[in-house]
Design goal:
The complex is a heterodimer of chains A (261) and B (434). With 261 residues, chain A is α/β, with parallel strands linked by helices. Chain A is 38% helix and 11% strand. Chain A is globular, with a radius of gyration of 20 Å. Chain B is of the alpha+beta class and 434 residues long. Chain B has 13 helices and 13 strands. Classes of the chains: A alpha/beta (261), B alpha+beta (434). At the A-B interface, helix 1, helix 2, strand 2, helix 3 and helix 5 of A face helix 1, helix 4, helix 5 and helix 6 of B.
């Protein structure tokens, strides 16, 4: 029996991109494998290890009855459970079905809807089991992912900066796209971690790391809608990869209510 | 009286996304082969309706974290057709360069971490690395260069942020591309070496008479443009895709599958199809490499796809070097357009096969309807047909050995189950957590 920590990687409803972010740590992967035993990682290994796991990374949201049970099993078998990515931390893009007509959605995609077994919502992991740490992002940042694993290996408390993307733009000297180009940007209310890449590529932030700590998206939306940005443009900006994060969904609701005649 | 036996691979491993396999035998008769996908449905085509058309490249990218660029490319080309947007040669070249990054990243991942361990008898790429450290390191380095190219052009490698309808938000920085040039040049030779390495693997002796389908282009190995070509029935236009190939839902097989409308027969998409149909369009070093490793003129062995991927990675590096050397930055790589009601379709070559998109948009710029056919759903029927032909030779083995051989065959298609948004679930059995 090795004294390595046993790692489990589990996927629920998602695109695989956050797990891939671990395999994208090309320079660190082999060093990590020296310290961590990859006990369960279907995408990477044919060994399907049983629990318990010292640390589990969970990607994806809960959208089926079976997954509702499976996440409880994963939690029971995991000493530390870390959710990775927007799907796992806020429900992801598929949470757009929440509040929509689910049956109509199924009919729109599948000719024989009776074969579909799925819940009418996609929800974050923390809604179902206690989560030890949530790493945000659509996708997560490989450097942050490696950092939290290394911190965990060394027994340090896991943490990542929770300030806004806006601050990272100022630090890197990126010209503000809202001020200079008049573009709507969620940078002031979105958690940092991506490296503030969208403004760097002259487009507004679309919030893929979810609401920043103590941010006020409603206030930003009121300002933007008062400055020639139509509600039909602002609502979809909030309703994408973190649509179900409360701060974003509340701000979208307020905008829609205000726009109602 | 014959006995009946069921073989079930509960969780396919080393594939992207999650699926299972069911095989039912009666004596030595194969009754049922089902590739079961328990990936939950995510309803992309439903929630795209009513959204601004500009959202399509970012949203459809989230169908698949391994091939987001393919989704971005098929969506922008289809929407540009709907809007009547003509892109400039500069935009076209940058899109090819971006696609090179994804082919390199995705193929290098599949070759080294997912597929090669099968031929060498390891459970994972990492385990393989203990015995083949140099080969694994070379593979990871190739993959990393693909990711770096994606980062320079797209801002990040998973779900790049720089692609938009009409082109790119910002042209890439020339310095960054030139800095990467030595790595890209190294990549040509390293990818060729990796191809020589995998071409020596002990490849199972299995062939099938396939109907290969891929894009084809008069002057180039296909990425973003061209007509569709079928090895059996010839070329057909992308605009009329569904008249030739259609998706359908079948209760027993748990998925939307695709077949030829006329014959109800399966098709084979992906690197084998591309190379069989477009070999003479490969760049010179890749083409020479294909000859050197004696890649058959018509390769009908799905396991040999690992060699085809190596040749395609070599080609993608050659292409990238040529494009970077020719790169002259222009001020804008984004075409303006007027909104109008319309309809447009596009097919591009994702690493694992043709990805087809069709959109209807209204005069306000909202998506009215979206149709997406992912390569894995298009290949699924072919995989089941293959398994039926492949299995008889292994029936004397025990269930777990048969399951192992089936899994190898499935893996050779590099299925991306997350991609297959249509895939649904019939059985709700899981055993990967006990």
């Amino acid at each position: 029996m090795s004294n390595k920590l046993r790692l489990g990687v589990f996927k629920f409803a998602s695109c695989d991109g956050c797990q891939l972010s671990l395999l994208n740590a090309e320079d660190e992967l082999l060093a990590l494998a020296e310290k961590l035993e990859i006990a369960h990682f279907l995408e990477a290994s044919s060994i399907i290890g049983a629990g318990p796991f010292d640390v589990s990374l969970v990607e994806g949201s809960i959208s089926t009855e079976a997954d509702l049970q499976r996440i409880k099993d994963v939690r029971r078998l995991s000493k530390t459970l870390i959710t990775i990515g927007a799907c796992a931390t806020s429900g992801g893009i598929q949470a757009l079905r929440n509040g929509a007509s689910y049956e109509e959605f199924v009919r729109a995609v599948y000719p024989s809807p009776e074969f579909i077994y799925s819940l009418d919502t996609a929800t974050p992991i923390s809604q179902h089991v206690p989560v030890d740490f949530e790493l945000r992002g659509c996708p997560v940042n490989t450097k942050q992912l490696v950092q939290i694993l290394v911190d965990h290996l060394h027994g340090r408390r896991i943490r990542v900066p929770n300030h806004s993307v806006c601050r990272d733009c100022k630090l890197s000297g990126t010209v503000c796209v809202t001020v200079a180009r008049g573009l709507p940007c969620l940078g002031p209310v979105t958690q940092a971690g991506c490296g503030a890449i969208c403004p760097e590529f002259t487009r507004g932030c679309y919030g893929c790391y979810g609401p920043a700590h103590q941010s006020n998206p409603s206030s930003l939306m009121a300002w933007l809608s008062g400055h020639q940005h139509p509600v039909e443009q602002l609502v979809p900006l909030l309703q994408n990869f973190n649509a179900a994060a409360p701060a974003f969904s509340n701000a979208a609701k307020e905008l829609q209510e205000r726009a109602r005649p | 009286m014959s006995t009946s036996r069921t073989i079930r691979v509960e969780a396919l491993t080393r594939v992207e996304g999650e699926g299972a396999l069911n095989v039912r035998l009666s004596g030595d008769q194969i009754e049922v082969v089902e590739l079961n996908i328990y990936e939950p449905p995510r309803f992309f085509e439903a929630f795209l309706r009513g959204r601004p058309l500009e959202d399509a490249p970012d949203i459809t990218a989230r169908i698949c974290g391994i091939c987001p660029v393919a989704y971005q490319m098929s969506s922008v080309h289809a929407l540009e057709r709907a809007l009547g947007v003509e892109i400039t040669p500069e935009i076209r070249q940058l899109r090819r360069l971006l696609y090179c990054g994804e082919w390199i990243e995705s193929h290098a991942l599949h070759m080294h971490l997912l597929h090669a361990p099968d031929f060498l008898g390891f459970a994972s790429g990492i385990e393989m690395g203990q015995h083949f450290p140099e080969e694994l390191k070379r593979g990871l380095k190739l993959k990393k260069i693909g990711n770096q190219l994606l980062e320079i052009l797209g801002g990040r490698s998973v779900h790049p942020i720089n692609v938009c309808v009409g082109g790119f938000y910002r042209p890439p920085k020339k310095d960054a591309l030139l800095d990467l040039l030595p790595s890209l040049e190294w990549g040509i030779a390293a990818a060729a070496d990796a191809t020589r390495w995998v071409s020596q693997f002990d490849i199972p002796d299995f062939e099938a008479d396939y109907d290969f389908v891929s894009l084809t282009h008069p002057d180039e190995y296909p990425f973003n443009e061209g007509d569709m070509l079928s090895s059996r029935t010839g070329s057909f236009p992308v605009a009329g895709y569904e008249q030739t190939i259609q998706e359908y839902q079948v209760p027993h097989s748990t998925a939307l599958q695709a077949h030829k409308v006329a014959t109800k027969s399966s098709c084979h998409f992906g690197p084998l199809a591309r190379i069989n149909l477009n070999r003479e369009k490969l760049r010179p070093i890749a083409r020479q490499l294909a000859d050197e490793v004696q890649f058959p003129t018509l390769c009908q062995n799905p396991f040999r796809a690992i060699v085809a991927r190596g040749i395609e990675v070599t080609h993608a590096f050659e292409e990238a070097v040529a494009l970077v050397k020719a790169y002259r930055p222009v001020k804008s790589v984004r075409q303006n357009y007027e909104l109008r009601a319309g309809e447009g379709a596009a097919a591009t070559e994702a690493p694992r096969g043709t990805l087809f998109h069709r959109y209807h948009v209204d005069e306000a710029g909202k998506i009215v309807s979206a149709t997406i056919s992912a390569p894995t759903s298009q290949n699924q029927k072919q995989i089941e047909v293959d398994l039926k032909a492949f299995l008889p030779e292994y029936l004397s083995l025990d269930n777990s050995a048969i399951g192992h051989h089936c899994e190898r065959l499935i893996r050779s298609y590099d299925p991306c189950i997350s991609c297959a948004t249509h895939f649904l679930r019939l059985t709700i059995e899981r055993s990967d957590v006990s």
